[in-house]
Write a structure and sequence with these properties.
With 399 residues, this protein is of the alpha/beta class. Strands 4-12-11-10-7-5-6 form a 7-stranded mixed β-sheet, with helices on both faces. The protein is globular. The protein starts with 17 loop residues before the first strand and ends with a helix.
C-alpha cells in the first residue's frame, strides 16, 4: 500500500520544520523561534551553529573529507590523546554513532575474555529499562520487548537484572559472564540515575570476579552531568565506556574508550569501520572538546543545572497535579508527569519549548550545555505557563 512519504514510517514526527539554529534556539521555516531543551536528544552539546565548531568543520572540508582507516588520520591521534589524557582510558576506537560505540564495547569485553583463554565468557549483565541502541546486538543488550519484537530471536549473551539491585547482579554472575554494562543515568528508561554506592558495588563485583565494567555514557558523557563523564561522580574507574551524542556536537561521531588491558584482545583485523574517525568528524570532535574542556565550562554546567533543577522542583511543588517528580543529574533532567506525559509535552511545545519523551511517563530536559541561567529561567517560565494552562483545562472539563 502506498504511503504519503517516500521515507520509512518508523518515526512519529512532530509537524515542525526547522530551518536554522542559533545557540539554544531553533527557527522554523516560517520564522517561529523555539527554545531547544531537547538538543537533538542530548547531541547539540555546544548549541546550534557554534562558531568555533562550524569554523573547524569548514576548514577541514576544504582539505580532505574521507581517507578510511587504511591510512593514518592525524586528527584521530589528537582527539584520542585528549580523551585518554582526560579520562581513565588508554585506547580509543572511533565510530559514527552510539550504537556502534556500544557494539565495539561489547566486542572488546568478549574479545578480552577470549584472549585470556576464556571463550566461554561472552555474557554481559545488563539492566531492566536500559537502552543501548537499535542494532540487533544493542536491542538484545537493552532487552526491551518493544524494540525486540518482530526481529527474530534475541541475540544471545545478555542477562538482564533489575536496575539498582546489587544482589540480583551478584546472583546473575556465572562462569560465562564477561562483564557488566550500565548507563550511569538511564535516559530512555526514564532518567533514572544509578546511585554512587551502586556504581562502586558494581566495580567491586567486577574486580572480585575478573569481569569488565562497561559504561554506556552515550547520553551522560561529554559534560552532560557537570563532569566530563558521569562515572567521575562515583569515584570509580570503568574498564570500557561508549561515547557519542555530545562529543560531535551534532556531527555523527562516537567512540569506545578502554584501558590498555581491556583493549588487549582487539588486535589488527578484529574490528573496523569505513567512516569512523573520518577527518571531518575528528575536526569537529576536537573543536567540541576545546569548548567543553575550556576553563570554567563544566562549572558553568553545574551552576546552570542547579538553577534549572531548583526551578523544576518549585514547579513540582506548585503543580503536583501536573508534575509528579523531577529527577536526573546535571543537564540531564526528567519531569515525571502526573498526567499522560504526551499531554504535558504537547503543552510545553505549544509554548515553543522543546523536550524529549522517555519511558516511565517522563519528559527529558536536555538543553545545550552552553545554556545560560537566564535561558534556563525562560524555559522554566514556559513550563509554568504550560502547567497553568493544563490545570485550567482540566478544571474546566471536570466542572
Amino acid at each position: 500500500m502506498a504511503t504519503a512519504t517516500p521515507l520509512y514510517d518508523t518515526y512519529m514526527r512532530a509537524p515542525l520544520r526547522f530551518e536554522r539554529g542559533e545557540g539554544v534556539w531553533l527557527i522554523t521555516e516560517t520564522g517561529e523561534r523555539y527554545l531547544d531543551f531537547g538538543a537533538g536528544v542530548a547531541v547539540t552539546s555546544v548549541g546550534h551553529s557554534h562558531p568555533h565548531v562550524v569554523g573547524a568543520l569548514k576548514a577541514q572540508a576544504d582539505k580532505v573529507w574521507h581517507l578510511s582507516n587504511i591510512y593514518e588520520v592525524p586528527g584521530q591521534e589528537v582527539l584520542a590523546k585528549r580523551l585518554t589524557d582526560a579520562t581513565f582510558a588508554d585506547k580509543v576506537f572511533f565510530t559514527n554513532s552510539g550504537a556502534e560505540a556500544l557494539e565495539c564495547a561489547i566486542k572488546t569485553a568478549r574479545r578480552y575474555q577470549f584472549s585470556k583463554g576464556h571463550p566461554e565468557k561472552f555474557h554481559i549483565i545488563t539492566f531492566e529499562g536500559a537502552f543501548h541502541g537499535r542494532t540487533l546486538g544493542t536491542i538484545a543488550a537493552g532487552g526491551q520487548a518493544k524494540y525486540l519484537e518482530g526481529f527474530g530471536p534475541k541475540a544471545p549473551g545478555f542477562d538482564q537484572v533489575p536496575f539498582g539491585d546489587i544482589e540480583a547482579v551478584r546472583a546473575a554472575i556465572t562462569d560465562a559472564t564477561a562483564g557488566i554494562l550500565i548507563e550511569p543515568v538511564q535516559g530512555e528508561g526514564g532518567v533514572r540515575p544509578a546511585s554512587p554506592e551502586f556504581m562502586r558495588a558494581l566495580r567491586q563485583l567486577c574486580d572480585e570476579h575478573g569481569l569488565l565494567l562497561i559504561l554506556d555514557e552515550v547520553q551522560t558523557g561529554v559534560g552532560r552531568t557537570g563532569k566530563l563523564f558521569a562515572y567521575e561522580w562515583s569515584g570509580i574507574t570503568p574498564d570500557i565506556i561508549a561515547v557519542a551524542k555530545g562529543i560531535g556536537g551534532g556531527f555523527p561521531l562516537g567512540a569506545c574508550l578502554a584501558t590498555a588491558e581491556a583493549a588487549s584482545g582487539m588486535v589488527a583485523g578484529t574490528h573496523g569501520t569505513t567512516y569512523g574517525g573520518n577527518p571531518l568528524a575528528m575536526a569537529v570532535g576536537n573543536a567540541v572538546l576545546d569548548v567543553i574542556l575550556g576553563d570554567g565550562f563544566l562549572q558553568h554546567v553545574r551552576d546552570v543545572s542547579l538553577v534549572f533543577r531548583q526551578g523544576l522542583a518549585s514547579l513540582k511543588d506548585r503543580y503536583p497535579d501536573i508534575i509528579e517528580d523531577v529527577r536526573g543529574d546535571g543537564l540531564l533532567l526528567g519531569i515525571k508527569a502526573a498526567i499522560p506525559s504526551a499531554e504535558l509535552l504537547a503543552a510545553i511545545r505549544a509554548e515553543h519549548l522543546l523536550g524529549v519523551p522517555a519511558g516511565d511517563n517522563v519528559i527529558r530536559m536536555l538543553p545545550p550545555l552552553t545554556v545560560t541561567a537566564e535561558e534556563a529561567r525562560e524555559g522554566l517560565n514556559r513550563i509554568e505557563h504550560a502547567a497553568e494552562k493544563l490545570r485550567a483545562e482540566r478544571a474546566k472539563k471536570s466542572a
